[in-house]
Amino acid sequence: QVQIVQSAAEVKKPGASVRLSCKASGFPFTYYTMHWVRQAPGQGLEAVGWVYPASGRTELTPKFQGRVAITRDTPAGMTYLELTRLTTEDTAVYYCARRGQTESGYSSGWLDSWGQGTLVSVSS
Amino acid sequence: QFLLTQPPSVSGAPGQRVTVSCSGGSSNIGAPSDVHWYGQFRGSAPQLLIYENDNRPSGVPDRFSASKSGSSASLTITGLQSEDEGDYYCQSFDRDLGFWIFGGGTRLTVL
């Protein structure tokens, strides 16, 4: 069955960087786009970006461009999110999720399987 | 603040029907772009409830349904149960932003 397992919580100081990992299994990882979504404490969901493992192509929500990188290790079924120049506003749970698709490979962006989330706390 | 507007909260008694609205604009829902719905229960990760406006994934009870019209969409839950209590989010693609966006979320309270 589809499984998405994320790395453990992180505590960082402002200005630092953090790298989160996400291990996917139970499906052909290469051909499913993987998204990152974050949720600040008591707040709603915010899209961060995505990676298509087969090509390595990534896209980021405009507010994260220049500060965030998403990479993948296709043979290992892993995707990574790196955030740099952290501020207290980056404190959030970061979710890794698989973009669903039809049998023909079409998708309009729904996220059908989610990891358990990784809490990133940024504090001085 | 959010391009997709949801009411902050809704409530209903067990067995009743509740509706959560999601209002967008011409650059997203009205573009038209598909709408997807997620539920988040007891602090866990979000889970997909509805995809492509009105499709229910396997395993989601048929008490959950959704529709879309123009620049708005709605999620309806019938036969409300205590375990339905949680937060509900709509999602769509915004063509001006060039990315997917979420609504601000609606907290459902089962009275």
Brief summary:
By secondary structure, chain A is an all-beta fold. Chain A is 0% helix and 50% strand. Chains A and B meet through β5 and β10 of A and β7 and β8 of B.
Features:
heterodimer; A: 124 residues; mainly beta; 11 strands; B: 111 residues; six-stranded mixed sheet; three-stranded antiparallel sheet; 0% helix
Description of the molecule:
The complex is a heterodimer of chains A (124) and B (111). Chain A is mainly beta and 124 residues long. In chain A, strand 5 (45-52) and strand 6 (57-60) form a beta hairpin. Chain A has no helices and 11 strands. The relative contact order of chain A is 0.30. Chain B has 111 residues and is mainly beta. Helix content of chain B is 0%, strand content 44%. Chain B has no helices and 9 strands. Chain B has strands spanning 9-12, 18-23, 36-40, 47-50, 64-69, 72-77, 86-94, 99-102, 106-110. The radius of gyration of chain B is 13 Å and the shape is globular.
Sequence stretches where pLDDT stays below 50 over 5 or more residues of chain B: none
Q: What percentage of residues of chain A falls in helices of 4 or more residues?
A: under 10%
Note the run of SSEs of chain A as H and E. EEEEEEEEEEE
* Quaternary form: heterodimer
- List SSEs of chain B in N-to-C order: EEEEEEEEE
Largest sheet of chain B: 6 strands, mixed
Task: Please outline the major beta sheet of chain A.
Answer: 7 strands, mixed
Structural class of chain A: mainly beta
